[in-house]
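Z., the sequence and structure:
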Amino acid sequence: GVAVSLSGLASAVANEGGIGVISAAGIGMNEPDYIKNFLEANKRALRNQIRVARSLSNGILGVNIMMALTDHEGLIRVALEEKIDLIIMGAGLPLKIPAMIASSGIDSHHTKLAIKVSSAKAARLIFQYWASKNNCIPDVVVVEGPLAGGHLGFKKEELIKDLVPLETLIRETVKIIEPFEEAFAKEVPVIAAGGIYTGYDIYNIMQAGAKGVKMGTRFVTTHECDASLAFKESYLACQKEDITIIDSPVGLPGRVIKNDFVAQIKLGKTKPFKCVWHCLGPCNFKEAPYCIAQVLFNSARGKMDEGFAFSGTNGYRANKLQYVSEVMKELVWEYNIQ
């Protein structure tokens, strides 16, 4: 998400009836004072991106905020202050977020809260905690399976063989949250993510109980995507065998598109750097072979020799640049003919 899904892509998706999502990861890296004052730079950039997206669309907008970000609470506050429609929280357990929001004094009634998990077990833990400690439950659950791009909530061996089908994860999660829906008299949609690329995929996963899908890879190769043309062209040029798993410095496996940079780090080569802000809690920056935030920002800005592109398993299927409106029409048409 670093510099890939910002106001441009989010507003275009919202204008076509989807929920346009702004990624908060590394969002302030374009700000002139980022290195010296990354906390304020990130908050300022997020606020600006939300406002720009709002100026371009009257549709539904969301923000994706990783719990692994060391400044996630500040970013959540900004999103609430800007009355964003939806906050998606993943890459960690957002157990204390309801209490934080309640004590913030911010009117949060407009904003829905979504949790992103990789298992029904994680969903149950969050629901139980929120229910017992705060007398509330999440508004939405996003279940991200093992075919997704970027950092993944699975062990590396789980991504190489015996993949748990996304349909199974969806059914298990739907079953887990049913008692909470009854107790709180509230429907909580389960959204499927990871490996969803076509309208056929959407139709099939909704038969398993999903009420919607979260798609990233499919929208990278759109004109409105905020990443550079070189970044998008790495998708257009890749083959199925070019999509691989790496070990990220944050301690999680990540799915990427192979390039020279990936080849070098797989050989154990390092890219020395000085960490001045420790943006990700799980990152052991003193021993990390490279700065994951910087290399992702580099690639999103077109410096593919200094970074790489995250991608889901279906990234190789992209063969042309499209407008978001064209992609949405294709998805709806494929869904409807099932």
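The chain has a mean pLDDT of 92. The longest strand covers residues 60-66.

Let me know what you think.
H.
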